[in-house]
Design a protein that fits this description.
The protein contains 12 helices and no strands. With about 260 residues, it is mainly alpha-helical. It has one domain. Helix 4 packs antiparallel against helix 10, helix 8 runs antiparallel to helix 9 and helix 9 packs parallel to helix 12. The chain is globular, with a radius of gyration of 20 Å. The two termini are about 25 Å apart.
């Protein structure tokens, strides 16, 4: 329990900074929305000027773009990108920081099982991401209600916004298994950026060529905002895939971490 609270305290500052940054980015876009609505026809003509593959890659839907929730769903694609970087940073650094800061030998000499240590760190990381998301959702929801108090669908807003946390859990899990497999990670940020942008580019490529199967290969497509707005729910099949992915990845992390030799100094 002490490890959990220590880790949670260590993530406290960064969680607030990330929450405020993500919120500021979303609000910056949302306050532009009323300006778009002043001349809807011009906006539609401008969007029609983009080739269909480009619109698909950017997640632009002319039908929904002129509504606040549709506009938010477009903006949200870039919020997810930033949130994924945060999750990968946390996941990749969850164990590698002990080796990098030369504290692994001190931690592992304590009368605590490795599995207990890893569990405390994983739960603290997940809780930290949850705190970030709660701050983000509350702040941006207040802003959205101020801009569009009468027609905003709170249910759709919450479903879209909470998908950020679900996607972050996948990237966090991926980061954890990387931190377990790689002996010594010198730069967490470089690994996080390269991994996240690779999946992001893959998702854009799938949208451009219209290949639906690519959706299964990138977390960015698991919670498609167009599907959420149309059905008012998540695609259950992708929730099942995510649960299976996280279970397999974390199980592998526990097995490897329990058996590997860790050289801190």
């Amino acid at each position: 329990m002490n490890i959990f609270f220590h880790e949670l305290k260590a993530y406290r500052k960064s969680s607030i900074i990330w929450a405020l940054t993500l919120s500021a980015l979303a609000i910056l876009y949302l306050i532009i929305f009323p300006s778009f609505m002043k001349d809807v026809n011009t906006v539609k003509k401008m969007l029609l000027g983009y080739p269909l593959p480009v619109r698909n890659a950017l997640g632009l839907s002319i039908e929904s773009f002129t509504t606040l929730i549709g506009f938010y769903s477009f903006v949200f694609g870039y919020i997810i990108l930033c949130g994924a970087i945060q999750a990968m940073n946390i996941g990749t650094g969850i164990l590698s920081k002990e080796v990098r800061d030369k504290t692994a030998d001190f931690l592992l000499t304590k009368p605590v099982k490795r599995s207990t240590i890893l569990t405390a760190k994983v739960v603290a990381a997940a809780a930290s991401l949850l705190i970030t998301n709660l701050y983000y959702i509350v702040i941006v929801l207040i802003c959205a209600l101020i801009i569009e108090p009468n027609t905003l669908s709170i249910k759709l807003f919450l479903l879209i916004s909470f998908s950020l946390y679900l996607i972050q859990l996948m990237f966090m899990s991926l980061g954890i298994v990387i931190s377990v497999i790689v002996p010594k990670i010198k730069s967490v940020l470089s690994i996080s950026l390269s991994t996240v942008f690779s999946f992001f580019i893959l998702s854009m490529f799938g949208s451009v060529i219209g290949e639906a199967n690519i959706r299964y290969l990138t977390p960015f497509k698991y919670y498609d905002t167009a599907y959420i707005m149309k059905n008012g729910s998540y695609d259950v099949s992708f929730i099942i895939i995510e649960i299976a992915f996280i279970f397999i990845v974390l199980s592998a992390s526990y097995i490897i971490y329990n058996k590997k030799d860790i050289h801190a100094v």
